[in-house]
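Sample pair:
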Amino acid sequence: MSTAAPAPPRLGPRFHALVAASGAANLGDGIVQVAVPLLALGLTRAPGQVALVSAAAWVPWLVLGLVAGVVVDRSDRRLTQTAALAARAVLLAGATTLAVTGRLTLPLLVVVVLAYGVTEVLADLAATALVPELVDPTLLPVANGRLVAVQQVANAFLGGPLAAGLLVLGTGWALGAPAVLAAVAAVVLVRGVRGTVRSAPHDARTRAPRAAARAWEEARAGLGFVARHPVLRPVVLAGAVVNMASTAYFTVFTLWVVGPGSPVGMTPQTFPLLLVGLAVGAVAGSLTASGVARRTGEVRAMVGAYGVAFMLLLVPVLAPHPAAVAGTLVAVGALSAVGNVVNETVRQRVTPPHLLGRVAGAGRTLVHGLMPVGALLAGLVAGRAGLATALLGAVGLSVLAVGALASQVRQRDLPGPGAR
């Protein structure tokens, strides 16, 4: 008597609901990311004040990343993400009212961006911690690749062009549409991801009052796990340096590419096409990352993709022609996406389920915290030594960071694909 083979694991409807909610939320993100700087320009022409609005988006990651990780691990991750998205909808609805009635000032816009950033920290950490709870461990590379692909399409492909059209209709539309999308995402999560999704053990510590000391102790647990882990420590440190260098590169990249006096000489109207190419590559890389990692091994895929991507960023400096720059960005988008998907999968596999939120919060605090530093350094170097020097320096720093990562992490350091 033969026994039927067990059915292969599937991603399942709960994961697809998470993808749908993330798609709606990221579409709103894409609209906000394009619309807010333009709204700021309508309120002031002072560069310092416009920069303040942009910087406000990253402050919550630096300040709240660790604490938000504790919140995610203490609570139902589905409800945490839902609450963050619902709060975002209410926040943007209020901002829409201010814009329509002509009462939206620059200080109020900064407050809105800061509060929006808080919702983004909580929603993003909860979403990444949800993935391992919704799919079989062997499907993590496929699941992460699909999620990143949807996020890229919604954010980069659709969000920017839609923001331009909404701004033509009025400021209220540019803020109101993301409010509706955040509400839709929250409803999809509530209806599509049913049941409690919380991995933290229900012991006495979990039920204890959430005193500041206990919260800090739990945050330190996530940070300590990253600091002690032989894989996560070099991956996070390299990621922090790479993100700082990437921010430095793209801070001055626009000046290198756009304008009649720039080496590339593109116009503001054609420049967005380059960013679409970057998104095209990112989607392709996201969908192929699991196959690449399966054939080459995760460490080789991650290190190789990052290393080649950053070396390709030399091309716009050495061959400043629109076609060369466009082709480079497509390739960079694909390779970076492969590295990011594998990076996320590795982190999820080596982290205990009850620490997923805190470890992600610790890592993103370090990674995002250095991004403003990179932007400031790029401006300083470019002002004193020129744009090319700033671009080449950023590439060199990125390659050094990837080389250091390659020397410290081996495939044998990782658990098997199905281990958790």
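The radius of gyration is 21 Å.
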